[in-house]
Write a structure and sequence with these properties.
By secondary structure, the protein is an alpha/beta fold. It has 20 helices and 27 strands. The strands form 7 sheets. An 8-stranded mixed sheet has the order 5-4-18-17-16-6-7-15. The radius of gyration is 24 Å and the shape is globular.
């Protein structure tokens, strides 16, 4: 039997074909007709069969008994966990963490938000800060709602790629489609493509130009481009006049971020900097595409705003060939406009309004939470030193996952969850992130073990032992809807919702990926104009501090970028490299070194690579999680993003 499906393990969501043999064995192959991945398949999917039957996999609920784990029934586990939660005198001290697996599955995501709101929880933590959160924040400041704007790379005439090389970090939902579209545009339209990052990856070898900038300086690259474009008269002032408002408010704020200063910050020459801005502004259709790691620095929110502004002043916002909003197979606009941050409650942990009802998981240590339910693992990029201390001090810590993870070290309960390919799924809550109108659906590929449950089933059944509450920061309309959704049959509810709100008639066939092009001219900003200014922006520009080196700390750390979508070792064919890299001209020999920042010291092994800037230490947190020990035990204001790039350090050979 043959079944079409898509990956729910990695960010790409690539198409796959499942062959079930007569003996029951399931073979997973790439789908050559998938419009995004174009026939590629991720390593995690290829190893999913092995991961499912791993001896490390959890197969029943477990309760900690001293240093041992005791198998118990689901009824006992949920009853005792519910009783402990119920006895907590404050719902502000109970938290729910939504991991990346739960964030990608619609039923898990909807049930998680419903659980949090219906029970009056103030703290619903998630990994949004790692993915689309900063872009959504920039969009909300300028559009009035938190849409995830996409890059129309297939139509653009001039492309600037920020962040890590996409061959290292991937293209997310767009898969290898963007690679193909960019190369086709270069051949047929002479599209010019420039990569700006601290490390020259293999994708940079296939395009027109590579410019080595210092890690963590992307916000200042954008500020400088905005400054020189406006000052030199290169902006599209007719577009600005017709479609935007309050440009005059930001011009004086940008005065000190001139070309020379921003070029010095980025580590390139002022003439080269001006040339980049000039060519971009003169292009008929241009995009600054923020790749992985672009916003993983101390000035994350400022960078997200500046990313919007450079497109607005060059008439590349909400237009074909620029950045655009996809209505998708199911339009989320009513939800986004009713969940904007200006009307949202303020998180006590971040001191800022929550984004789409979610608090950054990076802020768990700053919260008052002493009981936490974790749906999946917390990625290395969020594993701050204080986070580990906070988890260790929890009065109740519930770790829900397929296999024991690092959280289990301090957990009181371990609850076994399904593998992504053991679940049915619909992609409705993320469908606008696809560059087309589509509603991917899939039935389970593998049968789940008898005693494991999906995250949404765990939360629904836990609610039978944990009473809902009308307390908390959420309005009564959200609380009422959440109570209904908490106990609803979500598969049926989602299908009814799709029937009600579908953008146009789309096939229902499972695994069906592509139902047509999206309208890249969609225009619906608040008050029909894009906004340049807010008091928050003025404060961010005023307080911005760029990465700085010194005689004591002459190198900058580059820890973002590389993306490992495998949730654990069982999904990997080979182990991750634990070796950092530096340029041969850095003056640091290969071998074991001590890396010191103002936050601490660690020992690493390094090797030489001429593709890295000679003032940079590259140690991706995905493969070298111990790098977090010498990074700030903090998060970026407003976005909650981890601060992975631009921290000064000293490297000493041992």
């Amino acid at each position: 039997m043959e079944q079409y499906t898509y990956c729910r393990i990695c960010r790409m969501g690539h198409g796959m074909i499942c062959h079930t043999l007569d003996n029951g064995e399931v073979l997973l192959k790439s789908d050559p007709n998938d419009p995004f991945s174009l026939g590629t398949i991720c390593q995690a999917s290829q190893n999913s069969q092995k991961a499912r039957i791993s001896p490390e996999r959890l197969r029943s609920p477990q309760k900690r008994n001293g240093d041992q784990w005791e198998d118990v029934s689901w009824e006992q586990a949920l009853r005792e966990i519910g009783a402990t939660l119920q006895n907590n005198p404050s719902r502000e001290k109970i938290g729910l963490y939504i991991g990346q697996h739960a964030m990608r599955r619609s039923a898990d995501f909807v049930r998680s938000l419903s659980f949090g709101v219906a029970h009056g929880l103030t703290n619903i933590f998630s990994t949004l800060c790692l993915d689309s959160g900063p872009k959504r924040l920039g969009a909300e400041w300028c559009l009035g709602y938190g849409a995830e704007l996409l890059s129309d790379l297939g139509r653009a005439h001039h492309i600037l790629l920020l962040g890590s090389d996409p061959h290292d970090a991937g293209w997310a939902q767009e898969g290898t489609l963007y690679d193909t579209l960019i190369q086709h545009s270069r051949r047929t339209k002479k599209t010019k493509v420039t990569s700006l990052s601290a490390y020259k990856g293999s994708f940079a070898d296939t395009i027109d130009r590579y410019v080595p900038i210092r890690p963590g300086t992307e916000p200042f690259l954008l500020l400088g481009m905005i400054h020189v474009t406006l000052k030199s008269g290169w902006a599209d002032f007719q577009y600005v006049q017709d479609y935007t408002t309050h440009l005059e408010e930001i011009v004086p704020l940008l005065e000190k971020w001139d070309v020379q200063r921003c070029a010095d910050i980025c580590g390139i020459k002022a003439a080269e900097f001006s040339g980049i801005a000039l060519k971009f502004s003169r292009a008929a259709m241009g995009i600054v595409h923020p790749g992985s790691g672009t916003f993983h620095n101390e000035n994350s929110a400022l960078g997200a705003w500046a990313w919007m502004i450079i497109h607005m002043i060059t008439a590349n916002a909400l237009r074909p060939g620029g950045i655009y909003e996809n209505i998708g197979g199911f339009d989320l606009y009513p939800f986004l406009t009713n969940l904007n941050m200006r009307d949202a409650p303020t998180s006590k942990a971040t001191k800022h309004p929550v984004q789409l009802m979610q608090t950054p998981a990076s802020a768990i240590p700053e919260s008052d939470v002493n009981m936490l339910i974790c749906l999946g693992d917390i990625p290395p990029a969020l594993q701050r030193k204080s986070l580990k201390k906070a988890l260790q001090g929890m009065e109740l810590l519930v770790a829900c996952d397929q296999s024991p993870n690092w959280i289990s070290k301090w957990a009181h309960w371990r609850l076994p969850s399904t593998h992504p390919l053991e679940e049915s799924d619909s992609f409705f809550h993320l469908n606008p992130s696809l560059p087309c109108n589509a509603l991917p659906r899939s039935a389970p590929v593998f049968p789940p073990p008898e005693q494991v449950k999906t995250f949404d089933d765990i939360l629904q059944q836990l609610s039978n032992h944990f009473k809902t509450s009308w307390s908390g920061p959420w309005g009564y309309h959200l609380k009422g809807a959440s109570r209904m959704l908490l106990h609803a049959d979500l598969d049926r509810w989602i299908e009814r919702l799709l029937d009600f709100g579908i953008s146009e008639e789309l096939p229902n066939s499972p695994g069906h990926r592509f139902q047509g092009e999206t309208d890249r001219t969609l225009w619906r900003p608040e008050n029909n104009r894009l906004e340049f200014f807010s008091p928050t922006i003025a404060q961010l520009i005023k307080e911005a501090v760029p990465p700085q080196t010194s005689d004591q700390y002459p190198f900058l750390i580059h820890a973002s970028g590389y993306v490992d979508d495998a949730p654990d070792d069982a999904h990997r064919a080979t182990a991750l490299s634990k070796i950092a890299i530096m340029n041969p001209d850095s003056g640091i020999p290969e071998g074991t070194v001590t890396v010191t920042s103002e936050y601490g010291s660690i020992t690493l092994k390094i090797k030489h690579d001429p593709r890295i800037r000679n003032d940079v230490l590259r140690a991706p947190v995905e493969s070298i999680p111990e790098i977090m020990e010498i990074l700030p035990d903090a998060f970026a204001a407003h976005t909650g993003s981890p601060i992975l790039d631009g921290i000064a350090c000293r490297v000493t050979a041992n």
